[in-house]
Amino acid sequence: MHFHRSPHVYVEKVVIKVLDLERSLSFYKNVIGFKVLQQSANKVSLTADGENALLVIEQPEEIHGKQPRTTGLYHFALLLPSRSDLANMLQHFIQLQYPLQGASDHLVSEAIYLADPDGNGIEVYVDRPSSTWNWQNGNVEMATKPIDIEGLLAEGSGSWSKLPTDTLMGHIHLHVSNLKETEDFYCKGLGFDIVARYGSQALFISTGGYHHHIGLNTWNGIGAPAPDENSVGLKYFTLLFSSEESREKIVNQLQGIGVSISEENNRYVVHDPSGNSIHLVI
Questions:
Q1: Which residues of 23-45 are buried (b: 16+ CB within 10 A; e: fewer)?
Q2: Which pLDDT value is given to residue 161?
Q3: Tens-place pLDDT, residues 158-202
Q4: What total of structural domains would you count in the chain?
Q5: Structural domain boundaries, residue 159
Q6: For the chain, which terminus, N or C, has the lower number of CB atoms within 10 Å?
Q7: CATH number, domain at 131?
């Protein structure tokens, strides 16, 4: 978990738009196990520890369904503290008979995939010890292999009621329109390091030697358009900086490559070349 603390830069919170707030709230409470931190007529902040929001769901006044073949959210990923937690969550999904989209062994982690009622992608995963990750020339070895379901379930207690308090927003994975422009923005601008590539279609980046804090892909097509503002999907995500000094350094880097930056309520707001909105916070 030390990859998600100072001095590293990482995803703190994800904000998504949904069609039906009550339907989504029921899903995120009863299926995923979040607790409500704050709630208003059209927005709910969700938490695992009762203090910090990991996910915010919003229902704008004029909202329509998720648009296919656009940029935006591929999935957000909740990092659980232990393999037994992942086992218990999987057993919970099985008992609910909630449809899953996949389960994979990525060598650095084990993951379960599903979607919320609006099609927003979700990964729930657990990391293997970082001492077991295989690095070669600055790249970490990752793969997509079948997960050992029987071995995983054997580690669980069969008890699941809510997300563990130590759950984190482990990473976010985005659809983008152009990988080279995206690489320049996130690496030359935001200061992330490339840790893995999947051919010419996907890129994984991080700070501090994590296997990835952000995934980026062109699987919806090179040149894919940004979704409408009122489409279901990602509204923005926050990147957490350890200090004003570290954030100002990145702001200067972004301005140096021509990125437009606005300031709102002690946070800087930027958009990547595919239109994904990012809030830089301390």
A1: ebbebbeebbbbeebeeeeeebb
A2: 86
A3: 888 899 999 999 999 999 999 999 999 999 999 999 999 998 999
A4: 1
A5: 2-281
A6: N
A7: 3.10.180.10
